Amino acid sequence: MEMRAQESVNMSEDLTGAIAPYATALHDAFLQSHCSSCFSKLPSQSPRVMSCTTCCSVRYCSSECLSSDSVVHSSCGECCFFVEHLRRASPNYVTEGTSDLRAALRLLYVLEMNGLVSSDQINHYSRIGGLSASGIEEALEEGDEIAERILEGSLLMSSARKARAQTYVSFLDGLKVERMALWAVITNSVEVQLDEGLAMGIAVYGPGFSWFNHSCFPNASYRFVLAPKNEDCISAKSKSRAVPASKGVAADVWHAWHYEEADSTNAPCKYGPRVVVRCTKPINKGDEVCITYIDLLQTKEARHSDLWLKYKFICSCNRCIASPESYVDLILNRDARDLNKPEDAIAAPIVEDLDDDLQQAISEYSLGDDAKACCDMIESMLSENLMRVLHKGELSGRKQILHPLHRVCFTAYMALASAYRFRAISLKTGSLHGENSDDLFRMAKAAAAYSLVLAGAMNHLFLSECSFMMPLSHFLIGAGQSLFFLVESAKGETKQYLSEAKITFPSRPESSAKHDSLKYSEFRSTCEGFGKRMLSLSFHCWSFLVQGLPCLEKVKNPIDFSWLGTTIHQSLLPEEDYANLSAQDPTSFTKEQKECILSLAICCVTYCKYLTSICYGPQHYLSVHAKGILEGISIFT
């Protein structure tokens, strides 16, 4: 199955209405703090908060949510699972969480009650309720952790389902339907993020969303929205501008599509979080609409490995089959010595050791909160392998030489920005011992520097392929917040510099201000304007930010990377303007320096707000967060 555009659309347009889920489940850690029906945060000590009186494991924010969810909760076997069967699960199963199993119980109940479980599809391991279940046989044959989870989970599901009062659909293999449902959840569910990017749970949507295929260069994104409580029906959704297309699909698959389209009033999750698909590139009528399932900052081999591990398919999108490889893959994966070599003269770089060292440092930081050890290990790796000026005699015998746009550097920048920010905040709150409080400013400066080069490097990739709009939005607001924190950590009030900070940015097209459709040429021009503004400001503060950071001192500029070689796309500024700005290179934290850093912070947040409104819409949590930061600044200006 695939989804194709029913008409030509510009970027920044919603392609679907708000689609209600078939089944949802909060992650275990959020069961007591969020409503199991609508996923909204529960108010503390509120008389309106209610719980299931039998299992006491799920809570609701209102009587409406309780009444809309209680029948599914009890009838699907979830309540029985909490009361009788959770203790039978292995420690590993419980540690990893039970949201997928509980979502599968709910999904199977909903499909059975609406006649969407076909014995033919179950017996042939093809689909269940219109959701793809292909690949389950390969998953079980491979016998890895996913296979173990399916086998144990299906046993727990079967036990919980048999304990309920209602009868249920059974097949010759009594566990096949449970395995199919659990596999359908594993391969079709999405992490629900409603606030600050926290993955609070998972949701499984019907064909209106699940039939959107994956691409490593997607042309659409999706966002989640809470269902309004004042609606009697599930959805006042607009007509979808993307329609399914396929050949040779069984009639009962289309039955699932027509069920979802025809009767929105009887949706099983009346208040469950809804999903909206949005266009991020211009799409012609009849073109396939694709989203992404994975992290796009990976090699083709790593992307294929991720897709096969979870979904059991090999991607053949335009990025994966491109020959020669796309510009972003060339930059992300190529050794610094090969940036200016022709394709046929390049040897595959060996970076596995660096990947392993990097993941070890990140893992130790995540598990033990030893941010200093993480910084030391990663910066040592970068210092040894990241070079700006390359001389033939110096490179003999080296396995790899990294450049600032290499995928390994992206991962390193993310980890270092996070670790230094953690150290700075810990020093500010007095919770970090063993380091002098005078180091606060140095930690904040390092966090700002790594956040800025991360945003700048991603912006470089984005200007070549706008599929990277989504991660760029997150990196931009991270850079803006880190730059703000840097100025706040210095002695003196931030607001005294805000009035001098230059808050002038590229004019945005009128259509984007109204969040209507946007022509790509206007969008491209606006983004280049933001990039030029960031570049201009970075010339005045970059050398100051990287003082004391040897691995970043090798990076001439965090926004424009044309200095790396002729392979790199051209500079954002004309050569004469670049030369004039390069001459301005202050290194002390003067009043002018603070004003410049504040202007750069405001530019990053404003750029983030612009991109997020296009990619996700103006009501997305990132758009709202960026707007809040900018409104807070305007009070002092």
Write the layout of secondary structure elements.
Layout: E1 2-5, E2 13-14, E3 21-26, E4 50-51, E5 59-60, H1 63-75, H2 78-85, H3 91-96, H4 99-113, H5 119-123, E6 127-128, E7 131-132, H6 136-142, H7 145-162, H8 176-188, E8 190-193, E9 199-205, H9 207-210, E10 213-214, E11 220-225, E12 242-245, H10 251-262, E13 274-279, E14 290-291, H11 300-311, H12 318-321, H13 327-333, H14 352-368, H15 371-385, H16 407-429, H17 440-464, H18 469-489, H19 495-498, H20 510-513, H21 520-545, H22 550-553, H23 575-582, H24 591-615, H25 621-634
Parallel strand pairs: 10-14
Antiparallel strand pairs: 1-12, 2-13, 3-9, 4-5, 6-7, 8-9, 11-13
Helix pairs in contact: 2-7, 4-7, 4-8, 6-7, 7-8, 14-15, 14-16, 15-16, 16-17, 17-18, 17-21, 18-24, 21-24, 24-25
Protein name: SET domain-containing protein
Organism: Urochloa decumbens
InterPro entries: SET_dom_sf (IPR046341), TPR-like_helical_dom_sf (IPR011990)
Question: What would you say this structure looks like, in words?
Answer:
With 637 residues, the protein is mainly α. Helix 4 crosses helix 7 and helix 17 packs antiparallel against helix 18. The longest helix is centred in the C-terminal third of the chain and has 26 residues. The radius of gyration is 26 Å and the shape is globular. About 2% of the residues have low confidence. This is SET domain-containing protein. InterPro entries: SET_dom_sf (IPR046341), TPR-like_helical_dom_sf (IPR011990). It comes from Urochloa decumbens.
